[in-house]
Amino acid sequence: xxxxxxxxLGFVILFFSPAVFALNILxxxxxxxxxxxxxxxxxxxxxxxxxxxxxxxxxxxLLWAIEEIQAGRELPENAVAITFDDAYRNIYTTxxxxxxxxxxxxxxxTATFAVDQGSRLMMTWDMHREMHAAGVTIxxxxxxxxxxxxxxxxxxAWLNDAMTSIxxxxxxxxxxxxxxxxxxxxxxxxEYNDLLQAALREExxxxxxxxxxxxxxxxxxxxxLPRYAAGGIYANLNxxxxxxxxxxxxxxxxxxxxxxxxxxxxxxxxxxENLDVGWxxxxxxxxxxxxxxxxxxxxxxxxxxxxxxxxxxxxxxxxAPSRSQSGVYYWLSQQWLINQGPADR
Length: 345
Prior knowledge:
Shape: globular
CATH architecture of the largest domain: Alpha-Beta Barrel
Structural class: alpha/beta
GO molecular function, one term: hydrolase activity
Distance between the termini: 44 Å
Oligomer: single chain
EC number: 3.-.-.-
Helix content: 25-40%
Subcellular location: Secreted
Main location: secreted
Mean pLDDT: 92
Radius of gyration: 20 Å
Strand content: 15-25%
Pfam families: Polysacc_deac_1 (PF01522)
Number of helices: 10
């Protein structure tokens, strides 16, 4: 990259080492052969994932790895963390023994209402306590697993309902496990907005996880951390491998509310210089794979769909190739929730 090109783009200088400061996180729901295909990873496929991770990656504890990144300390090369959402019983009966055999740490995000109701699909509290005693990290996934930010009015009543669900889950987890837990949340359905993030920070939450794709780096938005889905159509190891090798695209995340009435939202992020990123070849796509007009202008990466997005959860994905490693890409995902109502603020 020439001096002229750097000056023209106005890059912020940041020499980013992906082996030191990068983490990819996998997200699972069911590990079973008889559960809904869209959220399930077949048992044989899950074993393929574990075998591949054993041979090519270092599986690390989620919270430890993020603390290391935030402190600027070195992570193992090709670090990956494993997470599960909802606390389905097959995680206890099927996935956990397989993970124990592989000696892999993992994190479970529990939605507590279904557990309290004694659903046959969910782990019991005794199962939770057994996992917790064995060192499994168990964290908050809300109480009723509702759509926290799908509302026609973002008023005090809405925010109180959302925070009550989160507070109730934290209380139930701590009561049943008999310990104080870190204030960490996985958003139900991965959906959030700026008001909920602000309320969580005031409540003492320091980390929150979505369901958009990408890796974690020292420049990440700690209240909207991405994870790669590893179930349903995303369980195929052939398509999962390059994601596990990917690196987070070095950008300063914008102060943008992902909940919007605008069906053609613009994503504008300031890029951070990294000499390994092939910025000249950056491409952005809609979640459906439609190429998006993309430009680099005065140190900003700018992309925006020309085709109106449908209501509901959508995303933009941007990738740029590594200059030093063939087949390795830097990855950025921005989630949008195209609101179905007037969204008074």
